[in-house]
Amino acid sequence: MNPPMQLQRPARSATVTHTNVSMQMSNNKMFRFFFLLLVSFAILSFILQRSILSKVTNGVENNVLPTKSTNQRQPKLADGCYHVFLDVGANIGIHARFLFEPDLYPDSTTSVAAFAREFGYPRDNRDYCVFAFEPNPKFKQRHLDMEKAFQAMGWRYTPILAGASNADGNFTFFHSAFEKEPWETGFSATASKTLYGHDAIQKNVPIIRLASWIQKEVEGRRLPKQHSNNVSEPKVIMKLDVEGLEFKVFPDLLTTGALCNNIYFLMGEFHYAAGNHNYYPMNVTSDGKHVLKDRKEGKKLATDMLHLIDVTDTCMTRYSLADDESYLTDPHDLPSPK
What we know:
It is a single chain. Helices cover 34% and strands 15% of the residues. By secondary structure, it is an alpha/beta fold.
């Protein structure tokens, strides 16, 4: 019987040893390659960052800032206003004084009482901003004087020297029969004849689309802390007295939501009374397809539009057609700090 065979472990050959050495050298090369790649990427990133920073810095030094995002909020005229009063058809601006200085005007028929009911009393005038729309150039200096005087008192009063309509642009207005009076009422875009049938003097004035202005400058305003101890929710109140243009303005306010979404209380006038006969016939659309033939048709359209407010649950607006013209002239000097 032959002795069992002894299995011999083969000796590690020189070829195996050489292969391991080659793999180690290859790994080292790959490591160096990736290391250099990472370093190169870091250097490139640093150069790009320095380049961008340099452009921004140069832009700031040259008063050229990077382009703002289109989603960035734009400032509004009513930012910082807790309450807002829109005096649309301001004439001499007497309603602002009814609001800021009610005790001086005891003979006000409705407006002083309306402000007390809606805003409360006593009030802190720092809580209120008045925007006064008036197209009659006769009253321009009066409104600028009021702005200056009220500013000295710490009250915000902003004249908007334009008419209110359903479009932006310019429009022909007509002076009334009282054109020579210091308190001229009836400066209108709808009455080419005076109350007495004479041709009215024309004046081209700027107009503003009121609905768009409210949505741009009032809706979504930034609210400040209320100064008054008479705490109340922020409100926007509007007086609308635009001598016939309400038949253009009001449908636009309704259909855009500018009225029902923003105006807490509306007071003013639709011009279909006996003294407004010279406003008719009246175009209510720019294409002339819809014409109010007389005061009766004007009253019906006004009634129908107000009825829409009444039957719309989502409309916050309440209204009164009381027209306070108790002070056609102002018996008091403008206020000054004591």
